[in-house]
Amino acid sequence: MTERRLWPYRLRLRTPFRGLHERRGCLIAGSVGWGEFAPFDDYDTEADARWLSAALEQADGKWPDRVRDGVEVNAIIPAVAPEQAAAMAVASGCRTIKVKVGDAEGLARVAAVREALPTAALRVDVNGQWTVPQAARALADLAGFGLEYAEQPVRTIEQMRQLRELVEVPLAADEVIRVDRRFDEVAEVADVAVLKVAPLGGVAATVEAARRIGLPVVISSALDSSLGLAAAVAAACALPEPPLACGLGTGALFAQDTTAVTLMPQDGWLPTVPSPSPRSDLVRAKDDLAMWRARIESALATHR
Ligand SMILES: [Mg+2]
């Protein structure tokens, strides 16, 4: 691995996301192209190892054959002021809008988006921040806006199970799959599975996870640059059943990208693309090279 070409990068984000103002990662060269290795700082070596599998699948391997040419995507509205949320939702051109809630302005943000787009499908994502009673109350308030689903209103699979008894709004599972890897229990506590390609270990691993879980699927970005997004679109296009509108409109959150052309939905639709190459003028974050090399080496050691 040390002999491979590594290309560390730092990309500015337009809007802070997951508390981040820039997205850091490392591109890895392989026999057919480049793969993206961009686990977040708080990921452990096991999680890094899965992300590395995804990067190496992209750099050296072949994605499963696609059965469709593109996917519908949702707009993603981060924790911004309600007026800005409505403006972002309208500008996205998407028919499905996912709104981050869980903070004090969550309800007002959803209300503003609903008022601006009366017929859009609305989803909320809470990233597991509520207790079961908080979630039951908040979802009762939010239900009036007509939600397609609420993603991880609570954090654990046991809490999801309890909440499901209390609310009518369909629930989607993200963290219990991506972090807890409770594949065989998800269908008991949720109506929709949110799958992220790199954290699951690649395109083939994502298609397999979808089969194992057996729920309608949303393929979502892990705040990937357009290199990682191409892998996510490949997974969405390889699923035997068409996914629900996918969380792959995240290119809009980036002020800079690893590729010359950012993968951005047109009218809510993202076409499949061949795995792209890095832009030639992508700045190398040289100070990060030693850190990424060490992370990649430990991730590889976990594999052996
Ligand atoms: Mg989520």
Structural write-up:
The chain is of the alpha/beta class and 304 residues long. The protein has two domains: 6-63 and 280-303, 2-Layer Sandwich (Enolase-like, domain 1); 70-271, Alpha-Beta Barrel (TIM Barrel). Helix content is 37%, strand content 21%. It binds magnesium ion. Residues 125, 127, 151-152, 174, 194 line the site of magnesium ion.
Summarize the topology.
Elements: E1 6-17, E2 20-29, E3 34-37, H1 45-60, E4 70-72, E5 74-77, H2 82-92, E6 96-100, H3 106-116, E7 121-125, H4 132-143, E8 147-151, H5 157-166, E9 171-173, H6 175-178, H7 186-189, E10 192-196, H8 197-200, H9 203-213, E11 217-220, H10 226-238, E12 269-271, H11 289-303
The structure holds magnesium ion.
Magnesium ion binds next to loops.
Q: Key terms for this structure?
A:
3-stranded antiparallel beta sheet, 304 residues, binds magnesium ion, 7-stranded parallel beta sheet, TIM Barrel, alpha/beta, 21% strand, Enolase-like, domain 1, 2 domains
Spatial order of the strands forming the largest sheet = 5-6-7-8-9-10-11
Give the CA-CA distance, first to last residue: 13 Å
- Overall structural domain count: 2
- Major β-sheet annotation: 7 strands, parallel
Structural class: alpha/beta
Please state the average pLDDT score: 95
User: In CATH, what is the homologous superfamily of the largest domain?
Assistant: Enolase-like C-terminal domain
Regions with little confidence, pLDDT below 50 for 5+ residues: none
| CATH fold descriptor of the largest domain | TIM Barrel
Radius of gyration, whole Å = 19 Å
At CATH's second level, what is the architecture of the largest domain? Answer: Alpha-Beta Barrel
